[in-house]
Amino acid sequence: MLAPERKGAFLPKPYLSAAAQFAASNDTPRDLLERCLAAIAEFEPQIGAFVHLDIPAALQAADRSTERWRAGRPLSPIDGMPIGIKDIIETADMPTQMGSPLFDGYRSERDAASVVALRAAGAVILGKTVTTEFAASEPRGTRNPWDPRRTPGGSSSGSAAAVAAGMLSTALGTQVIGSTIRPASYCGCVGFKPSVGALNRLGSHDYLSQSCTGVLATTLEDAWQVAYEIAVRAGGDPGYPALSGPAQAPAAKKPQRLAFLETGGWSAATADAKQGMQDALARFKAAGIEILTRGSNAKVAAAETAIAGAWPVSTKINEWESRWPLNIYRDRDANKLSKRMLDRLVHAEAMRPADYSLLLEEREMVRRIYAELASECDGCVTLSAPAAAPIGLHSTGDAAFAVAFSLLGVPAVSLPRLQDDGLPLGLQVTGFAQGDAATVAVAAWLGHADAQ
Amino acid sequence: MLAPERKGAFLPKPYLSAAAQFAASNDTPRDLLERCLAAIAEFEPQIGAFVHLDIPAALQAADRSTERWRAGRPLSPIDGMPIGIKDIIETADMPTQMGSPLFDGYRSERDAASVVALRAAGAVILGKTVTTEFAASEPRGTRNPWDPRRTPGGSSSGSAAAVAAGMLSTALGTQVIGSTIRPASYCGCVGFKPSVGALNRLGSHDYLSQSCTGVLATTLEDAWQVAYEIAVRAGGDPGYPALSGPAQAPAAKKPQRLAFLETGGWSAATADAKQGMQDALARFKAAGIEILTRGSNAKVAAAETAIAGAWPVSTKINEWESRWPLNIYRDRDANKLSKRMLDRLVHAEAMRPADYSLLLEEREMVRRIYAELASECDGCVTLSAPAAAPIGLHSTGDAAFAVAFSLLGVPAVSLPRLQDDGLPLGLQVTGFAQGDAATVAVAAWLGHADAQ
Fold first, then answer.
1. ipTM value of the model?
2. Which CATH architecture best describes the domain B4-247?
3. In this structure, is the dihedral angle defined by the CA atoms of residues A204, A150, A124 and A51, taken in order, positive or negative?
């Protein structure tokens, strides 16, 4: 649906279709990596998606993977997948700098649980992708592949930009407000934010209670596979069930009923974005899917009301939970924190434990109300962002359509199916807690059906 | 109730009673610290409670506190409290070695959230106390103050031993199975394990889902105050309400009804321990408190049945949740992990995510059944351990009476009110999730009433 001349500029690197050729000996992980490296050579100087690349190590890993495929013994379906790691997730052989000058050159000398899992599955870790400061709001210069004047979104800025530009097959992101869904929307790739807790975050500088590790990918199948391979090896966060579902991407499943949620974002959406959403809904209806709305269904109306305040609640929860370590960073060198981050700390330090308890209660209440929708429909659809990526690199854009599902802790997928101003815009499909496989199955149907 | 000649060997250092004298200018934090240092000089060579002491820094901190008290401006009720930090909790100015040779000399260069809070409250951080390897099972040589042939219990071995021997007023511990309640019982001090999540663990090498930070202290009032001062400044774990309650220890409150829980430990308890418990129950009855038992109350019987399997469920949960970082430690240098720890990892790596999900469901079911008791009684009582500290330093003893309340995530207090073989044994008082203040109020009544 995007202007062909733009789409042609990038050669996306879907992985599983390539791996099918590995098995048939028509392609190799080494060749796939070389194609990624060619894209990096071409686009990275302008886009700035990486903070660190380790090409020699990646070439070695790809060669070992090539040998395994030749021997008919790949470690997993993602053996040989070129993947990037958001730079708040630790890697033993690369720095982890968290988008903060406080961590310039910092090396933890260990792999995060998710990275241990990816290596065990044979993935080729090509580099660390740019994150905003501590995966929050302060951008770090990455440009949108579709228009370098525009933000790629954040906080998983580099992950989305690199995947969209064909420099990687997939990349890990995280999301606590809109950090996977928004950049996926802006960059025109797939974003998958699983249920909260579904992918083990130990070893990631990410301990906020509604945050989770997500995946940016060219295809939904690739996104699922990465999440699955992490979950099956590393599990979820302590205290949470891991992502569960089939060992290959769930088969597309046509939903009978979908709820269209305006969320807090609708009023900010552009006319083009709204029209794109309405057109998509019309296509779904034409395919025989019943669309529930706030006007037609009381539980949808209740959910809309409940999630309307998602942004301030999420923001305050994150602020309180960020006090440590921001307070020790401030005391160490306040000049190395952005003004945005210092402001966050000031807000946090004005809060009391009882304020936070009330926010947790409010979050639980919103989650209960949304969960009621599970008896009404097979999932929800909405925009992934109110507009195409805005011009300017000073902000990562508006997360108004993503934040509700972060607060809810439910699975969300952004499909690069819409456009605004000739630029990518995501169609967001969301589901219910721990219903990751069902959500992906619905998203697969909507994405594929809509593409035909 | 302990043999006076033994009790007399130590001069416990209750803090709040000393602080009352600070306010009256009859005592100072410097003097209190000096008395702790005298005890350290006398007992530490034999007991081995500390892995690191920073006496010059503590003296400076005590002097600053002394000045604040003189000026009538203490930072908090615990300004000047000599406190030890279990060595899995990070401290900016001391090593954090986690009872593991993998972390010999390791310095994180940052304070954990709880340590930030303690410093802000004016507490005097005197040193790091011995922990078993990664706060699990492998002991690290600390001896029981009452009998150096015996274990002090674990994993908060040094914290309990140091407090019991009067080397510290209080110390931080943690508990995921029995690591606060058991050493408190063995060493004859107060142990307070709050509701899971009640005290912020960020910056502690402790990310297991049913673990929590606890306090070892000479008095229950001191234990409450430490927990309160942490909670009010640092909050709880992300996603959990912080410990809540009054700014000074809750007033003693006579319970109307208590449930006596045998737990999985009763069959292992010595005759002396059982007799001590029965005598205590008789005293409570004589004071007019109704005692519910598995024989007299169906919900108590249901709770007993539910918690009977607490040990294997807790162990497996901990194993799964420990895979990372144990797997990276093993790959780095397996010789620096104990056989116990390597065995734990082997068990963990034989598990699948679905096994863990079932364990979480079982834990939730047990929690729901226990929570039903809240309508029946004001709390539960049982032993803190099946016997006095066993002879030998190769094991930290039997946590059979503590583990259920770790699985349940409920507040638990060990009071040094019983004895076995002439050695300390704890009376355990437990409550309901987030009911920390109510539990402490009941424990205060039982402890004080029983002492009269």
1. 0.96
2. Alpha-Beta Complex (3.90)
3. negative
